[in-house]
Amino acid sequence: MKLLGQAVFLLLLVGICCQNNRNAKAKSSKKSAGTQGGDVVQSPTAADLTPASTENMRGTGGSAEAAGREGAAGARAAGQQAEDMRLQFLKNTQVTCNDGTAAGFYLKEFRGSRRWLLFLEGGWCCYSKETCDSRYQNIPRLMSSSGWPQTKRGTGILSSQAEENPHWHNANIVFIPYCSSDVWSGTGPAPTPPPRQRQGREKERERNVNATEYTFMGSLIIQEVVKDLIPKGIKQAKVIMLSGTSAGGTGVLLNIDRVANQLAQLGAETQVRGLVDSGWFLESQQQRSPNCPETVSCSPEDAIKIGLRLWNGVVPDRCRQLYKRGEEWQCFFGHKLYSTLSSPLFVVQWLFDEEQLRVENIFMGGQSLSEEQWQYIRNLGRLLKNSLRDVTAVFAPSCLSHTLITRSNWKSFQVKGNSLPRALQCWDRSLEATRNNRTPAKGCPFHLLDSCQWPQCNPTCPALVDQATQQELTLLQMLVAMGLDPQKLGLDPQGEEDSVASMVSNGG
């Protein structure tokens, strides 16, 4: 009986060893097949052995057929999750979202890649107790991490699919949720003004200082994310792209040089670049009351003037030195900040940005539009284009829209026959050539401003949608639906298609 028991034990031991060998070979084969793409090297480490994989390698003593079925099911599940970014909270628990919950980031590693893409989420801001309370009630995920999901799936430039994201799919991708409401500028609770400054500011103090029940740490969150990525290999990166949309795009402008300096102090020899999408705002062109208790009635500069004190916000040093105390808000506007920055920047900007229009209470696809508002729209396109002429790398379609780089169809939009992914690749090659003292290749453009002057004159523009019916409309159809006479505006309904086609063929 004793001998029989020993024999059974030996048979089980041999079975486990064989199963371990098969698992190890399969894992090795999968590794060699999965490593591909630019700036990628094979670097298998002990970190490859996750708790789940080591559990599988222990074996269960079951039949080979059962083990095969379990292995196939596990491989399918792993494949479905391979594209997901997983949530990680900051190690420094003192740096938090507005409501004191833990800030964090989502990460999808591409093992061996020396390219990193860090993305700042957008979502405007709040700048007073009333606006922050309203934001917390209506969009709590922008102020708290309590409801964040464990995983996220990236789209556009955050996608891990080569067909959707040809140039950055094989990068380490980091999505940083926006939960600080400060345009990524805050560094903690706002300081209390000295007694002599409090006189005559009772209303402002009541409206703003009381809102310090919230914390504003956007800039600190970015710094802590970079720290937490050091064990993941970000110090060894060849290229780091700090990107963002809307308020996240403005956050890139405000933080790009700070991130570059932080990595340089850590000894990294990486090049930090910025990608600003729909964050290149202009000051309001309309006169308003200085009191703006509601977000929709407050101009961008007024919101930022008030918010900066509340957020204890910071702006880049070189820009701050250009303006006297109290005027630092001007550094939130790209056309004033751009020339003071050291890091390379690529600006993506719709020339008729819907968010720029929203803050002027202009809503395309809404119930009505006045002739004055239409002229404002036309003028916005001219002003935005002029503000971008001296930007080295730019992609600016003449369209009515907002945000671009995270759209799954982002490859479909073109300026002068070039898509944004293509322009980013040209910019990338130009920067690499410059770093290596080579002459950049010709015929690969990355300064792309639409030539045509009308909203939607670019044939690749996103479709306009009537907000009431959700139907897609042409620009002329929408103007008529909003109560305007195209002929009074100088638009000929019969000849408009020909004129637009002409503008497009002339470089639009």
From TrEMBL:
One Pfam assignment: PAE
Q: Annotated region Disordered: where?
A: 27-77, 186-208
Reply yes or no: does the keyword Metal-binding apply: no
Query: Keywords, A to Z?
Result: Signal
Q: Which GO terms describe its biological process?
A: negative regulation of canonical Wnt signaling pathway
Q: Where is the composition biased (Low complexity)?
A: 63-77
InterPro entries registered for this protein in UniProt: PAE/NOTUM (IPR004963)
- Any one GO molecular-function label of the UniProt entry: palmitoleyl hydrolase activity
Signal peptide range in chain numbering: 1-18
Q: Where is the composition biased (Basic and acidic residues)?
A: 199-208
Q: Which PANTHER family does the UniProt record give?
A: CARBOXYLESTERASE NOTUM2, NOTUM-RELATED
What family does the database annotate? Belongs to the pectinacetylesterase family. Notum subfamily.
Q: Under what name is this protein listed?
A: Carboxylesterase notum2
The species this protein was found in: Xyrichtys novacula
